[in-house]
Specification:
With about 325 residues, this protein is of the alpha/beta class. The chain contains ten helices and twelve strands. A hairpin with a 4-residue loop joins strand 1 and strand 2.
Length: about 325
């Protein structure tokens, strides 16, 4: 696929809703608004972290990019080519360039297949490798890249720890030479020490191979190390986006502030400040009117309950909130 422009991936106005079907006739009685008007870009060799609580729609965005879900609207431009407009064979070919690593390696790996066959499967599909001997050599190379011994290829998934299985999933994704990898909560099921090892591995692979990542997570504490940019998602919408350093130092949206406040810290300056986000995420099948976050926002105003907030520019990005606008008016 030929590149065009500076961005590897550009998502524009993505909307993915799920029908709610009820009754014997399975008629559609409503919609789950999983992703609504989602837009972002990822540059070559960089990482965008898409963060938010469970149920906010971030995994739906990742799956929609690969057409594992079917969006209703929007564009997913990979090197200038809209993945949503491709027919079946063309989309299957495009998946060589965009791979995904899921949260649960147990569910991702076939317990009946040896590791060598699971890693080589994608290579066979995309015609990578001159023959089986060549593909076996590449399997060995992939395992070594994720810091596993070559002897691992003749074993089965149940013979490995959770962290090792996730490394195998990474090796399988790398084997088809992708440009972008969607990491969907790919370290959240691992112990903290194993998380750090896998994050180190992902960063090393990015530097070595020039990979780009869409790193989907509910845990902001793992973002700072890996991502250049953060997009914060709430109830189907991106409510704040910007450079990672700015997001952590000066978050503009109350939801981002609450998520950061929930990260454990021994820094006295961070203790006793903004409280963590309280309450539960409303149902995406019946989102609140106005600002979707107003039912949990500590700074809610009357207009928040009625009107959808605008996208206001904040250093290096934007915030979907009335508060920066109100502060600007006070200063004037």
């Amino acid at each position: 696929m030929n590149g065009s422009g500076e961005m590897l991936l550009r998502v524009v106005g993505l909307q993915t809703w799920y029908p709610i079907k009820q009754g014997i006739m399975r008629r559609t009685t409503g919609w789950v608004q999983a992703a609504t008007d989602v837009s972002f870009e990822i540059a070559p060799g960089e990482t965008l972290a898409l963060v938010g609580e469970s149920g906010c729609g971030k995994s739906t965005v990742g799956r929609s990019i690969l057409r594992l879900e079917s969006p209703q609207k929007g564009e997913v431009l990979f090197e200038g080519r809209d993945l949503l407009s491709l027919d079946g064979p063309a989309m299957r070919a495009a998946r060589q360039w965009v791979q995904i690593i899921f949260q649960d390696p147990n569910a991702s790996l076939d317990p009946r297949m040896r590791i060598r066959d699971q890693i080589a499967e994608g290579m066979r599909s995309f015609g990578i490798g001159a023959n089986e001997a060549d593909r076996t050599d590449r399997v060995v190379s992939m395992l070594e890249r994720v810091q596993l011994d070559a002897a691992a290829m003749d074993r089965y998934p149940h013979e490995f720890s959770g962290g090792q299985r996730q490394r195998i999933c990474i090796a399988r994704a790398l084997a088809v030479e992708p440009r972008l990898i969607v990491c969907d909560e790919s370290v959240s099921a691992l112990d903290v020490s194993i998380q750090a090892q896998v994050l180190n591995l992902l960063r090393e692979l990015q530097e070595e191979l020039g990979l780009s990542y869409l790193f989907i997570t509910h845990d902001l504490s793992v973002v700072k190390y890996l991502a250049q940019e953060v997009a914060v998602m709430y109830l189907g919408e991106i409510v704040e986006r910007g450079p990672t350093e700015r997001i952590f130092a000066s978050p503009a949206h109350p939801y981002t502030q609450g998520l950061l406040a929930a990260i454990p810290s021994i820094d006295p300056a961070r203790r006793g400040g903004t409280p963590p986000v309280l309450g539960d995420v409303p149902s995406p099948s019946d989102p609140p009117p106005g600002c979707h976050f107003h039912t949990r926002c500590p700074s809610v105003m009357g207009r928040c309950r009625r009107d959808s907030p605008p996208l206001l520019e904040v250093e290096g990005g934007y915030s979907r909130c009335f508060l920066p606008e109100a502060a600007e008016r006070v200063e004037r």
